[in-house]
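Morning F.,

Quick status update on the modeling queue. The single chain you submitted on Monday has been processed. Sequence for confirmation:
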Amino acid sequence: MQLTKKFSWLSLVICLMLMVVLLPTLLFSQNDPRLEVIVMFEPGIVTVPKSETEATVNEVQIKSSQIKTAFLKHNVQFVSKAFPRFSPADTLGISRTGEQVRLAGLSNIFVLRTPDTATVKVLVNAIKKLPGVVYAEPNFHNYRAHGFPNDPHYENGDQWGLNNYGQNGGTNDADIDAPEAWQITTGSAVLIGVIDDGVDAGHEDLLNKVSGDAGV
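Structure tokens below.
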């Protein structure tokens, strides 16, 4: 009886040690955006099983043999919807000027999970010019800690000049590649000269950062 108890405690200790060692690795591999590629496909090219938001490559319906071959060649592990709650009705919106605009179909944007960071760039280059692919890029957008703004007008796509992914019927990548630049630097001690008398020095983005004549 005592031997059995000792064996049970030993097994428990070993299991706990394995969890401590392996769990961080598993969580890192599943959630690390550096292992992900964001891809927008033309409608109907890629479809995950009904009522599912994520599936393996073999479970996903892929109409393009070239795309499926690239997925298999570069060991894409999972394909998931980037915006699982998005519906066709969400493609219609109202601009700030009150005009009705058609937004990009976010249901065609997917997250591809790769086994390692080295595969990300290779996969992007392999699929970005294939027929049926609107764009493909590393998952820059989850790197909030690296300097991405939380400005709602950036996040909802209004500031398309910084990052244009086809929103409001625009041209994909017709922008200044701000997310890519922010991965290199977000600036430090930069002074900007504004010749204007309409600056709101009390704005949250400018508070305690404006100098000059009377601080305006």
